[in-house]
Amino acid sequence: MSDFMLWLHANYIRPQLDREDKDDYSFHFDLVGNNLPPSVRPSMEKCLEFTAVRAFALGLRTGAGLMECQKNPAG
Predict the structure, then answer these.
(1) Per-domain residue ranges for the chain?
(2) N or C, fewer C-beta in 10 Å, the chain?
(3) Of 3, 20, 22, 23, nearest in space to 11 by CA
(4) Alpha-carbon distance 53 to 11, whole Å?
């Protein structure tokens, strides 16, 4: 993963996710976070980082694709 994507995660994506209201998911976040041994938590954070960055990139690609479809509605 590029340094830029890691920076973007730390400075934009993660703060946005942390501000989100987790509603029905808060129990699950707490359950996982409280039951992981401290030695494993950094690995879980890296998995979350990877997932968030890839989802963000997918959103960018999807948005770009939708813009292209709007320009050429016939395909």
Answers:
(1) 3-71
(2) C
(3) 3
(4) 12
- 27-45 b/e (C-beta count within 10 Å ≥ 16 → b): eeeeeeeeeeeeeeeeeee
Q: What is the pLDDT of residues 42-75, one digit of tens each?
A: 999 999 999 999 999 999 888 877 777 777 766 5
Which tokens go with 6?
A: 């890691």
**pTM value?**
0.74
State the SS3 of 25-72: HHHHHHHHHHHCCCCCHHHHHHHHHHHHHHHHHHHHHHHHHHHHHHHC
49, 5 Cβ separation under 8 angstroms: no
Tokens of 47: 């998995």
